[in-house]
Amino acid sequence: MTEMSGKTEASKTIRQLIFVVVGMFGFGFAMVPLYDVLCDVTGFNGKTAGKYTAKEVQDVREDRLVTIQFLASNNANMPWEFRPKVRTMKVHPGKLNTVEFYARNITGETMVAQAVPSVTPFHAAEFLHKTECFCFEQQQLEAREDLDMPLRFIIDSQIPEAVKTVTLSYTLYDVTEQFGLATN
Fold first, then answer.
1. Residue pLDDT, tens place only, 100-145
2. In the chain, what are the domain boundaries?
3. Could you tell me which residues come within 8 angstroms of residue 122 by beta carbon, excluding any fewer than 6 positions away?
4. 153: Cβ–Cβ under 8 A, 6 or more apart, which residues?
5. Would you say domain 47-179 falls under CATH 3.40.30.10?
């Protein structure tokens, strides 16, 4: 192999590596919007839609009960106490239901939180309609303040018969810095 062909091979390899790095960066950058589209199309990851406005009163399925499990967790950087006041309830599809979650800021600082929901099984997310939810807006609590936060929801009367239990989970995140509130 001559010196010239060695340089040509090296520059070809460098170009290929640069192309691979740029491609990987582009793919990584595109993953978030692609994942969101995938979740919207398939219902994967249990992402729920925004606020639901009932156009008409749904037919209540008095002949059927679906078990709803409520879970609450905090992101690693969120020091609040956060829990559902009721862990499980049985609901009739088509009927409006109300449950509350409890939050308490145990710190000595004013903080702002955002709850992010997730539903399992994933395909049940399209049948869970929230008419009122603390997750629709941020919750600001003063030092050691507590709050009962309502959730009003309907399980669609068209939910598949195979779905017997739906788990609605919320993760609470600290978004205080986004509001310009200083924390120590």
1. 999 999 999 999 999 999 999 999 999 999 999 999 999 999 999 9
2. 1-42, 47-179
3. 42, 43, 44, 45, 46
4. 52, 96, 97, 99, 128, 129, 130, 131, 133, 168
5. no
